[in-house]
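re: that complex we talked abt at group meeting.

here r the seqs, copy pasted straight from the sheet so there may be weird spacing, ignore it
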Amino acid sequence: MSVDATQRTLPATMRAIPEPLIFESGAPGRANRYFEAAPPLDELVPAGHGRADLPLPDNSELDVVRHFTRLSQRTFAIDLGFYPLGSCTMKYNPKVNDAMAGLPGFRDLHPLAPDALAQGALAAMYDLERVLAELFGMAAFSLNPSAGAHAELTALLIAKAYFAKKGEGATRRTVIVPDTAHGTNPASAAMVGFKVLSLKSNARGRVDLAAIEAAVGDDTAVCMMTNPNTLGLFEDQIAEIAAAVHRAGGLMYYDGANANALMGNARPGDMGFDLMHLNLHKTFSIPHGGGGAGLGPIGVAAHLVDYLPTPVVSATGDDGATAYRLDFDRPDSVGPMRSFWSNFAHVVRALSYVLSNGGDGLARVSQLAVLNANYLRVKVREFLETPYDEPCRHEFVASAQDLKRETGVRALDLAKALLDHGYHAPTIYFPLLVPECLMIEPTETESKETLDAFVDTFREVVETAKRDPQQILDAPTATPVRRVDETRAAREPDLRWRPVA
Amino acid sequence: MAQPEGLLYSKEHEWTKVEGDTATVGITDYAQNSLGDIVYVELPRVGQVLSKHASIGVVESVKAVSDLFTPVGGEVIEINPSLEADPALVNREPFAGGWLYKVRVADPGSVAEGLLSPADYDALVAEGAH
Amino acid sequence: MYTPHTDSEIREMLAAVGADSLEELVAVPDAIALRRPLCLPAAQPETQLVRTMEGYAARNGATAYSSFLGGGAYRHYCPPVVMTLAMRGEFVTSYTPYQAEFSQGYLQAIYEWQSYIALLTGLEVANASVYDGATALAEGAIMALNATGRRAVLVSRAVHPNYREVLRTYCRGLEVEVDELPVGSDGTTDLASLEARLAEGRYAAIALQSPNVFGVLDVLAPEARALIEKSGTIPIAVVGEALALAAFAPPASWGAQIVVGEAQSFGVPLEYGGPYAGFMAATKEHLRRIPGRLVGKTVDLDGRTAYVLTLQAREQHIRREKATSNICTNQAHCALVATIYLAALGASGLRACAALNLARTQRLIERVTALPGFARAFSAPVFNEVAIRVPAGTTASAVLGALEAQGILGGIDLGRWYPELADCILMCATELTTEAEIDALAGALAGGVARETAAVR
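got the structure back, here u go
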């Protein structure tokens, strides 16, 4: 049995001590320590506009430090342990990237600074965009959208504008989505007034070519897919699928959540995709930060470049004297999707990641991501059902269906048991296609020792489930809190602190 | 649970009980069980006119949301006042205290169209079909 | 490079997997295989990488200038304690807290953020953040559209133009109309036509920003509130400069049912436009329409206080096409920075900061309007930005060009957003703008600039 990771990841002293809310401490006036003297606020605020009271706590800096330090110690993270989270690509977040994003020349740059005084920032955006275009086979990218879902919305708006310009706006309103698609796909379609047509995957777990051919028609706007798909399987008929959609006059959209499998070995542009997004907070090592911010660039083929959101970064001049500027003069653009230009700090992180790996390094990233996933797959299948018993790409799915039938232990319970051993759970219950699904994606930054230790622990958990299911059903017991009453949270929503009257 | 008699059922797991020109509607035990703990029910408004089979509300649980498709058409005359404070009533008594709403049926003669008898619904549930 | 594999480990793992090579594992059908080697940069060792990135950073000359730029992104003091805490690895490298049992710290921090936003706006509930202020406005409008079933939105022209454009982008997708209310001569929204506009009951929402893009306090008077309420239109307050919430009456007090805005002012660096932290708050009535994540307080099996993501059934990963929005990621880390900032400053620090902003802006106004030909464009009270009309015969652009030559970024040429205001500069002064800088700006305007712009005439 491998070293018990719990001791390393959950400081025992932190476990049982609840941390009060920041609002429950402090005393008036304790916090005013940073600013030069000013006349009292009430003397400066115009009559009738003042604020009677501001019920926020005043804490000493030391108390603030202790509060948030303790909160950080009750939070699991990649820096503490392994996250085999399928579809999330929880790879190591290099610290040099954070340091570069924090350089004062980037950090203090106002977005409305004149272009001539922001050439470094504009060049960084331009250079990253050129790399992404080449790496993924698209004519151009926009670094505008803040997340994958945001990029999807942008892509659908582009499709809508494109068809409107062709006079097909009224008819082309259907988005074809496989039943393994990420939930944002249909939600994004609805925000653009498109209908969703869900296609059942075939027995091989792929999008069925015959089903596509039957589904496409004059009403087809976009077919949204990912490759490899959310089962971690390569859609080997993608070229034929794209051809079928194009023949019907539709556009192909690539959901880039699984791009970590592709770099340097295949390009969505070559597969026939007209539109795509990337999740730089997955593939390009930008930290997840507890749930964002992300950066979801959108890439397009040549015939859609004019529709990209504004502004676009343009370059004029040759190598010696290139001048960059923000270009807002794009008459066919779908418009801006956000405040200002991009989640620029993440542009810096991503560019830094690209340059530290180089093209060859990025190809190796994908190769080793796929190696790690297959390595786990062949080990995990010894004790848990893997419904698609063939080589996977960067992730694979297992099912606890049999275990549930035999012992009552479900995917959820296995996930909770892993927490006790200092591992984050795999993705569970997605894709919806596989019952009691666990989706596992190790990424390329995990060592063989980590993978072996995880396998040992996972095997032990499954064996415990068979021998003594109650132990697993009771998990977790070593974490700061045990299973949480989600029903009560939803029935009696308590979403904020209230001042005591 | 064998389905209560005297009710008609829809494929979307709603039940309806017709008494004269008034129909009461709820969701079945199978539905509440699949949804899990119900946290919120969004009902049509009193006075709203519903078309049979239209999507007219939502039943929300912690992990899922289910659209309500009305098995009967007509004007809503009453909604269950207890559900705002106690949505769990739908879990506890899906066929009794957890009723959702009542309509004045537009055409009592056609209520049974498209709906299933208790035995047929039983068969549907046994198949595990959704 | 961050892959730990040795060559012998790769061989061992390939053998375990039953493949001969890494290439075999990533092979794709010929039809879509790469046709040529990709033209990508070579790898840079870290020492070289740092030089390269510092090279990019060094070409952003604006950071060395004295700056009066505002316009939706504000230069405020962020005490180092904030980033020291926010950049702890546990916060930076954690995932969305779906596994609540060992994400209690982050969940509690988000609950605290939600509380701060609710307290600052005066509304009942706030979400865990959205991308930025502009998309927050679009999402707020969607809430109002869903609540009322109407298909049009009314927005003041004094709302930041970027925000209005994003609103239009989203509304075009939904095939919803966006109409505008004009700006009055005093710089507030001109509500003279309000009654007529609302009469047909076609608007789901009316959106106003306060302070608005001109820095002007722009709220609803009781009569306007009453008209809006009667028409069933939902008032949305837009907040571009969040620090204003610490100084002025909260939006709930003048009738806002939904508040949307940008929390960048709370310690989030300028960073050329992002990432920032959009926020949304609403009355209890709109709780189930609020998009994005929500953290709730509950208990665990043993009765301990516990925090958890809640009301997730509304979100995209469950509700899919019926979701309240497609939003998935929020801006958790930026919201965390803002939360720590608010904790570090406290009410007394925020009030002191706001007072300094007002005081410095008042000084800026006095110094600049004392110069011949320079005047305020609008008379209504302002917070920390002011629209200054330049002397007759010259343009905002020319004056700004002359200031730039003297190492000063004097503000924003309002003509870029409002063609009729091409003779106005939007100037911003915060607690970081020193009296010396303000005096230098006035000196530059009085001396060299007047001479330079005389040439333009």
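couple things i noticed - The longest strand of chain B covers residues 55-61. Helices of chain B lie at 29-35, 89-92, 118-127.
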